Amino acid sequence: MMKQYPHNARVKGSALLPNRFIFGDAIDEQGLEPCEYVVHTESPAFICRLVGNDETPFDGDDQEAFASAVLFDEADNVSIYVCNQGFRLFDFSFRDLVPTAGELQGICDDAMRIYLQLQEIYRERDADLPAREMRVFPIKPLPPGERAAAVANLKSLAQEACERPVSKLQLTGLVQQTMAGGDQAVLTEAQLGLLSMPPARELLLATARNCIAFPEVVRKDGSILSFELWAMPFAFSRAQGGAWWHFPMMERAEPVLADALELPPKATLWMSPTAFTIEMLNERACQDLVHLAPVMDLGCDYAPVNPEDARATYEAARQTKDPRLMLAFIPFLVERGTLSQEQARRHARKALDAVMPFVQDAVGAEMEYGEAELFAPLPWWEALAGGVGGINRKHLSLTLALAVAHGGRVSELRAEAEYQPEHQAYEVLLYRIGRDEAVARLPWLLVPDVAPDRARAWGDLSHCLAEAGIPLAERLSRLH
């Protein structure tokens, strides 16, 4: 029989001893820490931090068999443990005895063996997830004659809808059909053909953006489901080339995210296992996003290309070294009217803390990555603008820090930027004033869109450099 303790009573009872090693996460003021913790409960007891994707060199790191070392960093006055499985243990906090380097290496070797077993158990458990059908929607260019006719029809209806608002519903249907057709050049050429008619062009682009941001699904029984498309930007570093985009375990975050955002109990929230990189969005001008809602309503996953071919390309690319900071967007659909921006803003921190472990597990199961940062959920177009703005500023701050580290001051720098349409970005070169040799370079990305706004990107770049006191000039590309 249970009875309550008096507040001043000593706690009694016996307990089973804990396991020798305990692995887990922790939360600090910024949210989920970007590392795991290892607790060694036996003597010498200690706690330390654990990270993966570590490439610290040591004697024997190229062996096929398991190898490890305990190293001392004189500059930072710290000891670390590394192994050729890509893991590093550091920030050792000993509770009683301080072991020798050999003793610590032996304990950490045991910890790594158990940790690897634990990861294998996780993988086997996750492999039990039923695979969902992939629906592939490749690019389907129309023959020149059909494309020209489709462009003319779209332009004509956009102009008509400007003059006769009753035609806006018809325009919405045609825009939806055009974007779902697989030839993104039709909408692109139509909006470019309306540059001399700004009202018609803006109506066409607004209609396209709304089709993506507020999708509707018509089911066979005639019922209509209305959604809103949201996303969480996900910035991550990679040492290898290529990037993967399909993460089946992402669906596990759905109930967690819905609960953290305090959606109504029966409200629908679907997280897309398909994430979209900047390159994927630019390649299709965001138009293929119209497929997300109907595909997910069928219980399937969206694929922009054949997954087997894409996987082979990725596996080849990941054999190369290409260190970089990347940005992807994790979309999710919510039932329209169940999530306001104020509600999302209010619960943003709770949502990030709750979802981040699931996102890390989902991405880590399919692709190696280093540091990662998940941004607050926002409606689709705001998420794109916020994510790209954040990654651009991070690129700039890192590049400026690198330039200053090689000698000189920020006030001694000037910048030149050249637009690169094939990358939907400006290439920014930094020079020391009075010199012609660039000391650093960085990309300044345009926000992906059905019609990316080059002027907006230039204005944002100019503003950021002006705040840093760096003069900017545009360099026009020369055609040879």
TrEMBL record:
<protein>
    <submittedName>
        <fullName>Uncharacterized protein</fullName>
    </submittedName>
</protein>
